[in-house]
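note to self — DONT lose this again. spent like an hour looking for the file last time. sequence + predicted structure for the chain T wanted, 556 res
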Amino acid sequence: MKRNTPFSTLRRPLCTALGILAWLAPVLSPARAATTPALLDDYSDAKRNRNGIERLLVNDQAAGSKSSASQSYADGVLSMRGDLVPGRGVPAFISLVSFLSAEGKPGDLSGHQGVRLRVKVTKGILCVQVASAEITNFDYHTGAPIAGGRGEFQEVRVPFKNLKHGWSEQTALNLKSITSINLVFFVTVSHSFRMEVFFLLAGFFSHLALQGHEVGEFLKSRALRILVPFAVGWFLLRPLIESGWILGAASLRGDVHIGAGLLGGFQSLATLPAGIFTGSHLWFLYYLALVTAIAVTVRAAITATGDWREPLSRRSDAAVAWLATSPFCVVILALPTAATLWFMRIWGMDTPDPSLRPHLPVLLIYGGFFTLGWMLSRQRELLPIFGRLTPQRWLLAAMAAGAVLLLGGIERNPAHPRHAAAHAAHVLAYALMMWSLVFLTLGVFQKLCSHPNAFVRYVSDSSYWMYLIHLPIVVWLQVAVAELPLHWSLKLACISMTTLAISLISYDLFVRPTWLGGMLNGRRQDRVLIPWGLGIPRRLRSRRQAISGAALRTAP
């Protein structure tokens, strides 16, 4: 290769990749494209792109991670070396930003069809992002991952029409407002069973709530406790979350203005009704409402069968009881789950927040856990059986998790000769891990919380409120501590403890004894945390007096 062949290696084995040549090309034909000059960057200079504008190397330290990289240029090769170190469950990334103008102003690229790269990927993946002046958070338009190919250079073309939003509702890219082309190296950390446990418990308690009540009364209660927090919470929390992303982006540039960030967050509502009720952490309430409506509809259909109702109920209960005692319980449940996981966008569980259009694979899996919880509520004696803590289950969970981690890297390498086989093995391992961890979680908490406990009850009551409000608090705190010269573990502890404190105090003050507590928890309750805190001085005085009295009594 000649001078326009930059190369990179990242030391961390989790993800190693580099773009070689970024061209904004008309791509009229293969022959014509081969002679098209590089309009943006040919990487012939170590620090500046072809337009003479200095590149910006961005890492994820503002998000709490510790990734770092450096670049160098020699013999026509641009090299980047560093480490991708994810933190606090967030993606790790390093982004090489190539601006169209020195001021970062938008440019019109509507006369071009896409980005052309000459790239060698050694490990992991590389992504192409196109930043637009219309997007103020990190949800840039992103191309499909570029995987490694046996250490050889390859030409990759990324048409603008194929670029997608990262996680919000998909909209077309406005080519007249492009500000930069970014090459992003990243690694992700995901969750496999927490929402599944939630939906299982939701099904269990939904069936309990329906007993002894009319269906209309039950649906009214569900709407009040699910749909109202979903709708109202979205309008209140989404602008705060957006403002946090805006402040985070400003922090990366070293220019944070809290007022401007808040204003930008609330200005995001100006695009309504486009994107309404999407792109927030409250999507689980929407899916819970969908699953609940389906469950009530199926129940009504079974009731309408008349004489068939009792035989159907008995057979369903018998099937669940047989499943609970089967030594192959986890495998039997994992097989249909794995088949459904195959149709996810990623190798794992998708987060279905970009659109209100139901994501069928996600709906099927969460609906399955909800159904099992519903059936377990009919036979509560089966709960300890499903949650039994056996060495075999712990071993299966560990082996499945290991397989998921081992196979996960192949997801980002579509050119791998065993890509399809690895995908099939991954979804099976993921399903086995999912069901194993769900049942182990049930078993652990049945063992630890088998007796009434006031503290556990209080935390349980406050959990709904804590989940609703936690995300904007976490995002804002991450921005606040990002530039502090402290170890990441201290920042993690500070953010976690502060978030818990704000959530619990606000719950005790403004939720638990009010109509809001009645809506979220079903009834109002007396404050606990605030009276306990206010009573500390009195208890300390009483203790000192008791110690003084004891000293007087024992004096000679």
